[in-house]
Write a structure and sequence with these properties.
The chain has helices at about 1-15, 35-45, 55-65, 85-90, 100-115, 140-150, 165-180, 195-200, 210; strands at about 25-30, 50, 70-75, 95, 120, 155, 185, 205. It is an alpha/beta fold. The chain has a single domain (about 1-210), classed as Alanine racemase (TIM Barrel, Alpha-Beta Barrel), CATH 3.20.20. The radius of gyration is 17 Å and the shape is globular. Bound molecules: pyridoxal-5'-phosphate. Pyridoxal-5'-phosphate binds near residues 29, 77, 190, 205 and 207.
Length: about 220
């Protein structure tokens, strides 16, 4: 199946970049995919998944978590502050921490629920007005605010602008992470995960290359 092919490509990209085998975490992005496709990938042994919508994830993952051991679900879509409670209940990692109001809500829920989801700060590396994410220049201040709230983000995440070479964005994200003392990098999707691995990605988010095209109906 496609999953095996993707895993081979990840291993080859790790080797080409002189990185440890297994140093890149594959997040299989299962948003809006039919249940049978997701179950096929679960049956093939994949355990780390990405979702974009709280409500959709709420409907799907509790059942699969009961049936498959060791599942971990990562939130990779925009997160409304009023969904912070559900997000902390549902997700093992949140890649889209992008504003102080959300940081406050997450900090309160993390304390209340006694959970510790892995946190990534989303960076708007292309300075795109319509796109979520902290601007590069604002990142040091944002990190300080997060830490003041008791949050300890572990990494950065980016979605490079459509139609642009993603590599300069991956490089910028890596430099920003180094400057902020963060060791995780969530970058690279179906079209560019090998380039992201060459630039140091620790987490790649691959959807359509594993599951096939998404049908938004
Ligand atoms: C949908 C999505 C992906 C997966 O995209 P593909 O091109 O299907 O691999 C990765 N990251 C984010 C943030 C997404 O929303």
């Amino acid at each position: 199946m496609e999953l095996d092919d993707i895993k081979r490509r990840i291993a080859a990209a790790e080797q080409a970049a002189g990185r440890e085998p297994g140093s890149v975490t594959l997040i299989a992005v299962s948003k809006v995919q039919p249940a049978e496709r997701v179950e096929a990938v679960l049956n093939a042994g994949q355990r780390i998944f990405g979702e974009n919508y709280v409500q959709e994830a709420q409907g799907k993952w509790p059942g699969w978590r009961d049936r498959f051991n060791g599942v971990s679900v990562h939130m990779i879509g925009p997160l409304q502050s009023n969904k912070a409670k559900a997000a902390v209940q549902l997700f093992d990692a949140i890649h889209t921490l992008d504003r102080i109001s959300l940081a406050r809500k997450l900090a309160a829920q993390i304390a209340e629920q006694g959970k510790s989801p892995q946190l990534f700060v989303q960076v708007n590396t292309g300075n795109e007005p319509q796109k979520a994410g902290v601007l590069a220049d604002d990142l040091p201040g944002f990190m300080t605010s997060c830490r003041d709230l008791g949050l300890s983000p572990r990494g950065l995440m980016c979605i490079p602008p459509e139609g642009e070479d993603p590599v300069p964005h991956f490089r910028l994200l890596r430099r920003l992470a180094e400057e902020s003392g963060l060791d995780l990098l969530s970058m690279g999707m179906s079209a560019d995960f090998e380039a992201a691995i060459a630039e140091g990605a620790t987490h790649i988010r691959v959807g359509s290359a594993i599951f096939g095209a998404r049908d938004y109906g």
